[in-house]
Amino acid sequence: MDAATGPRHAPGDTVWLHDVSLMATEPQIAAYRQALSPDEVQRAKRLITAELSRRFVVGRGVLRSLLASYLKCPAAQIRFATGPHGKPRLADDHAGGWEFNVSHTGDFALIAVTRGRAVGVDVECHRHRLKRDELAARFFSTAERQSYFELPEPLRLAAFYRIWTCKEAYLKVIGAGLSFPLGQFAVSVHPDQPPGVLHVDEQPDEPRRWAFVMPAVDPDHSAALAVEGHGWTLRRQIWDHGVATGIR
User: Fold this and answer.
1) Whole-angstrom Cα distance, residue 137 to residue 39?
2) Which of 13-22, 87-96, 151-160 is least confident?
3) Which domains does the chain have, with CATH numbers?
């Protein structure tokens, strides 16, 4: 199996995580643009910089190509819809129970795909000038703040992004977006704890619904993956624009 075609079969006990560079050659970008819908083409044109437009075209083109390999249909025929709070999903006429989620930062993206399970992914670039302590005090839950501020300063960078990515992945997997306040649930803080949701206000059974993984990216990024249920296997691939488009 190569990076562009995806698995021949991905049962519900497999979650596929694809590492995607949003840098591509002009011929590859043009090939991805051909698969976009008219609305997506117009959206790319409305973005304020050429860099943002390129990232959108490549990211959406890769997503379409990737989903096409699972659904066994042309990439241009993929149709999307959105949930009540804006979470993208496949349109109802795409049978098979496929679920996906996308996160990107700069020129890097992660795309998670599985079948019959909700999935959410988040990746963040470490911004060293970010006022992390102020954000933690404002947005973290009481338990998260206590654990975070007990840590010595050198450990807080990793802890901050562990908390932030896990919280974002959880909001994405439940499809709630910012309609669900960040302070109403708590995730694990310390690196010696398994990643995951520890508590959700007024929903005592909620933490057991989800399994979390923190995929390694590089020293300047943190990522979290949240998946509905347990007993699944993570498979990871690096996307190859040359194989996907046939253009080197």
Assistant:
1) 40
2) 87-96
3) 14-117+232-245 (3.90.470.20), 125-210 (3.90.470)
